[in-house]
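Below is a filled-in request sheet from our internal design queue. Each sheet records the structural input a requester submitted and the sequence that came back. We keep these sheets so that new team members can see what a complete request looks like end to end.

REQUESTER: design group, bay 2
PRIORITY: normal
MODE: inverse folding
CHAIN LENGTH: 202
BACKBONE (tokenized):
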């Protein structure tokens, strides 16, 4: 993380977690503004934080390999007692550990919006489940697969497994829940932006 860049962009401080922070003023959209009373200037927000401000924390001002972010999820994926954040998007799948300012690349490629962190193989550690777009011809129909990624204990290396190579479309939403009452959590994913949208359980 380049704090010199952060200091130029944001007049904030470095927190104990090793992240750049700043104070951002809350500006409600026009639909949430009311007219000021006679003798006052400007509009008054209907809702605001207690002191009228939010803390802005920047994990990464320019995520590597990415042209845009799409989704994120948070959990302790290596059982070290610290929360990791996984971010997916166009170009890469990345992980961050905010408390130590560590980060790394899970995989490269274009990943969908939906993502879940779940212990897929029942080894006591969570894996990353997300949709991935397969490379194809420029004007060809998009081909998405549903994948899961398993890390080494230090998150230094990740192995990709394909869960479903014949998805109907973009797995836009991915979640886990016990939908049949058997005590086991199933994977539920939808298929969007395709000829035959659907909802699928695994």
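RETURNED SEQUENCE:
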């Amino acid at each position: 993380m380049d704090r010199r860049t952060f200091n130029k962009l944001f007049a904030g401080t470095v927190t104990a977690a090793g992240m750049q922070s700043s104070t951002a003023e809350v500006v409600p959209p026009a639909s949430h503004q009311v007219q000021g009373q006679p003798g006052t200037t400007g509009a008054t927000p209907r809702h605001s934080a207690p002191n009228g401000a939010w803390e802005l924390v920047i994990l990464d001002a320019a995520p590597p390999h990415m042209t845009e972010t799409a989704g994120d999820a948070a959990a302790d994926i290596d059982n070290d007692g610290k929360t990791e954040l996984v971010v997916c998007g166009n170009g890469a799948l990345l992980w961050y550990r905010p408390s130590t300012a560590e980060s790394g690349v899970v995989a490269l490629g274009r990943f969908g919006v939906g993502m879940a962190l779940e212990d897929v193989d029942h080894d006591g550690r969570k894996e990353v489940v997300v949709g991935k777009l397969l490379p194809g011809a420029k004007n060809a129909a998009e081909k998405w697969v549903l994948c899961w990624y398993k890390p080494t204990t230090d998150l230094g290396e990740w192995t990709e497994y394909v869960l479903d190579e014949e998805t109907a479309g973009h797995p836009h939403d991915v979640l886990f829940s016990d939908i049949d009452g058997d005590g086991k959590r199933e994977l539920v994913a939808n298929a969007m932006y395709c000829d035959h949208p659907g909802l699928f359980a695994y």
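SHEET NOTES:
- The chain is about 5% helix and 45% strand.
- Residues 1-46 have pLDDT under 50 and may be disordered.
FILED BY: M.R.
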